[in-house]
Amino acid sequence: MDIGTIIGLVVAMMAIVLGIVLGGGSVGALLDTTSVLVVLTGTLGATIIAFPLATLTKIHTIILKSIFGSAPDPAATIKDIVRFAEIARREGILSLENHIHDMNDPFIINGIRMAIDGTDPELIKEILDTELEALMERHERGKGVLDAVAKYAPAYGMIGTLLGLIFMLQNMDDPAAIGPGMAVALITTLYGALVANIAAGPIGDKLAAKSAEEVLIKSMVVAGVMSIQSGDNPRVVESKLLTYLPPNKRAAFEAESGKAA
Questions:
Q1: Which helix H or strand E contains 82, and what residues bound it?
Q2: Tell me: the pLDDT tens digits for 165-202?
Q3: Which of 40, 69, 192, 200 is 20 to 30 A from 184 (CA-CA)?
Q4: Packing angle between helix 234-242 and helix 74-91, nearest 10 degrees?
């Protein structure tokens, strides 16, 4: 579970609630059924128009991934690949067939199996790169849905506000109703801004960050499989994979490896 997403959502909502309370208002005063229907239903309709239904039916899994999904630890991935390189170097690449059950990532399993089967190195890389590109496209589509919600929600909030102003101006014969009518009209804009800036926008950005982490891991796997297939020394394999880590994590990995040795 990504506790950071939950903490961020709670903090963002607390900021709104505290702003209401400290400003002398009440949460109940900001509740308006019509405004909710305009923003949520309008945003939903626009999103349905913009994306295929097959993509939208999976939006709940996309959102849950921002909370419960987690990318593998790059350091752990490097250790696993180096261990497989040591086995291949010591016992031959065919011996990795007996260690497939120790591999948790289907992406690694696919690459190692192709290497074991003697598949041409260029073909292995092409297949793995294609799979990685497909993964990136799926992630981009998922984030695109949330980006669309973040774009449409404020727009429908403004539409709701304009409708409220129109209705209010049609009843200018009652000055006492102008203030409450204006407040209700502005609530719709507030709802649109909240949907975009508390939920859709931040969750979309979190998914982009998680996607980048996963792509990094997959890229490391591709490099590792190609090194194992070419029979590189395990130390060379480790050196290649460490280049994917930022300097601070690389130093921490090397320090930990030194202690373990």
A1: helix 74-91
A2: 887 777 777 777 676 667 777 889 999 999 999 989 99
A3: 200
A4: 160
